[in-house]
């Protein structure tokens, strides 16, 4: 089968909107979480922390194209554009049919959805609704708008699996290139911050409430004082490419996708299953032809929830013991839901290339139920050659990616 490498990166995140800003934020322990004061008007909501993306220009996209885009699709399209430029792919090639796209998200634009349904309820009908409203709220809004903007004529996929969406999007691209069905895949995910998302987790007591006045202190993955996740937004896109093609055109190779696995717990819609996590991580190792001892670092899914962090810790301990360094990037940026798999894969690639590993921000006192693994609590200088990145979602949907610096 073909080997698959990463040749382009585009990212919009609460830590910054380019590779340099993101790497600096990870290295220096910067938090992208702020107090969302505007959410206080939402009745019943008790979590007022979130990670917002700012500092990008939507007008990079022509106005006619933006008419079908909410913030979700705008971010996905800009990040895709940046990744394609970074990879040096010509517009003619994107239209050749040899390049495809796979971008996941949880839903379409929640802000556009809220506005559309509010208008419908207030007016008692569809009078005054914009004809472009559906294009903003449809489940594949991010993928479809980015594909049209880039002129993609190859395959287009849009996985919708909450926190596993973008990891599955990368896995799809990886498999298509491995099997020779596409030469290039533009892969990743996007998520748009909205109070309804925070409310979804707050209702089930999974959103952070105790740090509303000190937002940079939450979330606290693996910490004894963790009290839930902080919802965030962003877009993270990578260009995957057949390795031989990348070498032939002398492309910059950031990393290689060594393995991928996804599976379902088949047990509970919301409660994580340790057995499912174990099966997914083990399957990713088999996919990559690796042993547990070959992994140099694990970027955990850990969001800062009680059960999720503990269950993942136990699974990592069973497979990898207490030697492999582990941290969760969500301490820095919160939970970007549909974008988290690709965003954290990009974080891992940047750390791998720059020779450091970022700790779990806000991890001060390791919780007893998360003990027994090698938690990173400070930045370390190390050349990690092989990295496992986990994404575990509602519905018991699990995904694990293995990345390596062996692309060249």
Per-chain topology:
Elements: E1 4-12, H1 19-27, E2 33-35, E3 49-51, H2 63-66, H3 71-87, H4 91-94, E4 99-104, H5 110-123, H6 133-137, H7 141-150, E5 156-157, H8 165-178, E6 184-191, H9 195-203, E7 231-232, E8 234-242, H10 243-248, E9 255-264, H11 274-288, E10 297-299, H12 306-320, E11 325-327, H13 330-333, H14 340-354, E12 356-357, E13 374-375, E14 380-381, E15 386-393, E16 397-404
Parallel strand pairs: 3-7, 4-5, 4-6, 10-11, 10-15, 11-13
Antiparallel strand pairs: 1-8, 1-9, 2-3, 6-8, 9-16, 12-14, 15-16
Helix pairs in contact: 1-14, 3-7, 8-14, 11-12
In short:
35% of the residues lie in helices and 20% in strands. The protein is an alpha/beta fold and 408 residues long.
Protein architecture, described:
The protein folds into 2 domains: 245 residues, Thiolase/Chalcone synthase (Peroxisomal Thiolase, Chain A, domain 1, 3-Layer(aba) Sandwich); 148 residues, Peroxisomal Thiolase, Chain A, domain 1, CATH 3.40.47. The chain has 14 helices and 16 strands. Helix 1 crosses helix 14 and helix 3 packs across helix 7. The longest helix is centred in the first third of the chain and has 17 residues. It is globular.
**Count of spatially separate domains:** 2
pLDDT average, as an integer?
Answer: 96
Structural class of the secondary structure composition?
A: alpha/beta
Tally of individual helices: 14
Q: Give the strand order of the largest sheet, numbering strands 1, 2, ... along the chain.
A: 5-4-6-8-1-9-16-15-10-11-13
Proportion of helical residues: 25-40%
By CATH, the topology of the largest domain is Peroxisomal Thiolase, Chain A, domain 1
CATH superfamily of the largest domain: Thiolase/Chalcone synthase
**How many distinct beta strands?**
16
The portion of residues forming beta strands comes to: 15-25%
Which term fits the overall shape?
Answer: globular
Q: CA-to-CA gap between the ends? A: 17 Å
Unreliable spans are: none
Q: Nearest-angstrom radius of gyration?
A: 20 Å
Q: What profile does the largest beta sheet have?
A: 11 strands, mixed
Order of helices and strands: EHEEHHHEHHHEHEHEEHEHEHEHHEEEEE
The CATH architecture classification of the largest domain is 3-Layer(aba) Sandwich
CATH uppermost class of the largest domain: Alpha Beta
